[in-house]
Amino acid sequence: MSAVSLGALIRAHPRVGAFLATFPVPRPDQIGLEAWLDGLGEETLADLGMTRSQILDHVRRLQQEDRQAGPEPVQALTILGGRDKLGRAEAVELTIRAGEIVCIVGPTGSGKSRLLADIECLAQGDTPTGRRILINAAPPPPGSRFAPERKLVAQLSQTMNFVVDLTVAEFVAMHASCRQVADADVVAERVIATANALTGETFAPTVSVTQLSGGQTRALMIADAALLSASPVVLIDEIENAGVDRSRALDLLVAEDKIVLISTHDPLLALRGGRRLVIRHGGIAEIITTSAAERANLLALERVDAGLMDIRERLRRGERIDEALEPWT
Amino acid sequence: MARPRLVTVAGSPSVGKTSVILRVLDLLAAEGQKVGVAKFDSLSTEDDKAYARRGIPVSVGLSGGLCPDHFFVTNIEACLEWGQRQGLDLLVSESAGLCNRCSPHIEGVLAVCVVDALAGIHTPKKIGPMLRLADLVVITKGDIVSQAEREVYAYNVRLANPRAPVVFCNGITGQGATEIAFHLRHADAIDGLEGRRLRFSMPSAVCPYCVGETAIGETHHRGNVKTMCFEDQR
């Protein structure tokens, strides 16, 4: 390690550079890491809050992580039933494949969030439901289950907001650089363009993320989850209908081969999934495959939705809605 | 005498330490483990009532006018002895890192740092030994920021601490608590703390203000004093 200059080390491992940049002391490029630490002295190290050996260990681990590959592709996620709140066995073995949408329906408090939580932590019979989750038909290896760089699940929920004080372009670029994607600028542009395609009101890359409307915010979150998040599984807790093209949003996630689970009672979303899970008393009580008749009804509902969207647009433009409306279905 | 497993939980004030601990202890108590908490705070706390309501034994230490972390390290051994007398299987100490340079973690004792996703994505870069030398990092309030911000925040936590697993935990619903419980089950049982060491020194301060000085001015500066440098005076 000492043979390599700090400059070369940081060029090879940007994360080491980002870590060392948090130390407010001069860092010459030409000398090696150990020589630099030797020159700092006890008092400076005490101010930095780490010992020499702790810093060396830290740098070594960041270098190792740079060499590790990302998570393995997930082709299938399997839910093995546990028990419901009344202690009855949940007789379920459900496999969801990449590019599939599964909806979760049930009254408030029935256990929809608990199911999403079981998937997020890859439960192995150690949560209150006793469910087990398999990845590619096997239990996740114990070491990888809780490894942060292998987080399989990205989440989108109605309560989420952007809180960072950055413009859209700066923020997406920052996320791209954390993900260490090649061509971060190109990917960032694509995320913003995709988000704009999902929302009725387009926004500029120079606007602050905290100033986006509800619909714009949701659109950017969905585009980012589809195109920039490494997680192969996306859990969605409702997408409100304010200004987001929901069917296009789902198509986008599916096109990226994500496994999508949505907790929703929105008819357009619930009927778009291939299957829906009915939750009662904390357990999966039934798995309904969307029928041909339901698919036909979905088309009728989409026409109703398009009619409503059209009126919404006209109201936004200041028009009157005086004419007798045709039934859209 | 009981040999409790010991876990130190530290984090800035109001990040949600107590909520996280409650959710995790609920899971462990349901397995039949006897769990207890040593709660450190500076001026006052209501959190002991939250533990007591669940029937979790709790002892409270208020540091008052002392540095809360120095107070913590001088009392943690007595807390462990209290836990032994209570016959605990697991003792969790909860202390607020009031300055980001605080260093509460002990060699060989499972160390948890709780950070708050709402605190801003650069916060992990500003926290010293409390975050960098922890064995497990818990991120709270991740349910109210975007997935993208969660990922950037977790990345910055990873830069600050490449050793520790990172867990998002919702202190209200308990999502994520299962993962934390998994780590707490594997904490080491501790016979005693005599002779053990902190992972890094506490922030040092022996100056007149440590012992009650209130007057401002250079004539009052004695002992361990550090002065700032200004660009225009270099």
Automatic annotation (TrEMBL), chain A:
Signal peptide (from-to): none
Presence of the UniProt keyword Oxidoreductase in the record: no
A Pfam family this chain is assigned to: ABC_tran
PROSITE patterns per record: ABC_TRANSPORTER_2
Organism domain of life: Bacteria
GO terms assigned for molecular function: ATP binding; ATP hydrolysis activity
Residue ranges annotated for the ABC transporter domain, each copy included: 74-307
Keyword set includes Nucleotide-binding: yes
Keywords for the protein's UniProt record, in alphabetical order: ATP-binding, Lipoprotein, Nucleotide-binding, Transport
Family: Belongs to the ABC transporter superfamily.
Name under which the protein is recorded: ABC-type lipoprotein export system, ATPase component
From TrEMBL, chain B:
Annotated GO biological process: protein maturation
Pfam family, one: cobW
SUPFAM superfamilies, per the entry: P-loop containing nucleoside triphosphate hydrolases (SSF52540)
InterPro entries (alphabetical): CobW/HypB/UreG_nucleotide-bd, Hyd_mat_HypB, P-loop_NTPase
Positions of the CobW/HypB/UreG nucleotide-binding domain: 7-167
GO terms assigned for molecular function: GTPase activity; nickel cation binding; zinc ion binding
PANTHER family listed in its UniProt record: COBW_HYPB_UREG NUCLEOTIDE-BINDING DOMAIN-CONTAINING PROTEIN (PTHR30134:SF1), HYDROGENASE PROTEIN ASSEMBLY PROTEIN, NICKEL CHAPERONE (PTHR30134)
Protein name: Hydrogenase maturation factor HypB
Organism: Magnetospirillum fulvum
